[in-house]
Amino acid sequence: MLRTLLLASILLLTTLSASTLPASPAMHRSTAAAVFVCMSKSSVAYHSSSSCAGLNRCTHEVRSMSASAAQELGKRACHKCY
Ligand SMILES: [Zn+2]
Fold first, then answer.
1. CA of 46 to the centre of ligand 1 (A)
2. What is the pLDDT of residues 44-70, one digit of tens each?
3. Has residue 16 been placed in a domain?
4. 20 belongs to a structural domain
5. pTM higher than 0.85, yes or no?
6. What single string gives the DSSP state of each residue in 15-50?
7. Domains in the chain, number
8. How far is the CA of 37 from the centre of ligand 1 (A)?
9. Domain interval for residue 65
10. Which of 10, 28, 62, 64 is a good FRET partner for 39, with 20 to 30 A between their CA atoms?
């Protein structure tokens, strides 16, 4: 009787731990989307393409970063490539 109870509780524990596994481990993937930012102070936009006409006028360093990072720098989406 005790043996059956032990077996049942082991089965229950394995079922519980299996169902509490994280469903999706790929949550960080959305931050991989990069935009291009001209590091000039007069630049106000970030670009989806490195060959955008607005970005080609840039005489400073062009950096790729996440869109949220660009927004934190005070940039908005470029009207030409968005
Ligand atoms: Zn652009």
1. 7
2. 999 999 999 999 999 999 999 999 999
3. no
4. no
5. no
6. HHHHHTS-S-S-GGGGGG-EEEEE--TT--EEES-T
7. 1
8. 9
9. 33-82
10. 28
